[in-house]
Design goal:
The chain is mainly alpha-helical and 307 residues long. The chain is 78% helix and 0% strand. The chain starts with a helix and ends in a 6-residue tail after the last helix.
Amino acid sequence: MNRSSNGFLHRLATAVATLWALSLLVFLLTRFSGDPAVLLLPSDASPEELVQLRQQLGLDRSLLHQYFVYLSQVVRGDFGQSLRYGTSAMGLVLERLPATMQLAGAAAVFGWVLAVPLGILAGARPNTIWDRLARLVSLFGQSMPVYWLGIVLILLLSVRWGWVPASGRGTWGHMVLPVMALSLNLMGSVTRVLRVQLQDILQQDYIRSARAKGLPMRSVLGKHALKNAGIGVVTVMGLQLGALLGGTVVTETVFAWPGLGRLVVQAIQFRDFPLVQAGVIVLASVVILVNLLTDLLYPMLDRRVGV
């Protein structure tokens, strides 16, 4: 078994261990959040009815027993029935996941399409209007909370001017505001990293030698500078994809987007343990998979980097 295979297996084992630790943490946090039986029954329910419901849900057992039952189900892909909806928790999660992936994917594409050209222009032309614009985008993108920006966008573009819908999902217009709010942080991070790395690389001796040989700036950027800046940019993009999925929890709540993030928030409010656990594990699995694929891209950008 070569070094690359060992590295991949090590990352895979780390991913599995991370998922297990996360499942344990989510299990404990949900159990310590309160008694779901109080929310599932009417306010005038008798103590006997509460005890009977806890027995039906298995909440009268010890915490250790509940965890082993939960773990034995999870390894089979069974997260149980949603306490609120009375149907498969994983089924509900997979039903809402496409809406979340659509929102995160659109935000990623929108952010990259704007951030990459701006970062290249700022890196290749320091101290110009492009450089100042890139710094401004980086500052605002990494300092503005998503929920605050979302509310401002709703007030301006929807309530005041009526250009696009304020909430819901349906037409492309419903995606405008949540995509704008969600992609700004990604734009700030990618623009900053690409700008800084390009400005540093363009000061290297081999770049100066290429320029001295008469190579045009476009060739220098395409064949040398961008290739060497690629690892840092890919790293940021991989991390930001994970941040986008995490940001959908807030964004979907602000814009009433019917995705997985909003479903998890509602499940937390109703103490729907199986639904919270299934939603968090699925979101975490997607983030871990994205980071794993990002690691696999490194050797393609630089053969000196092993998997």
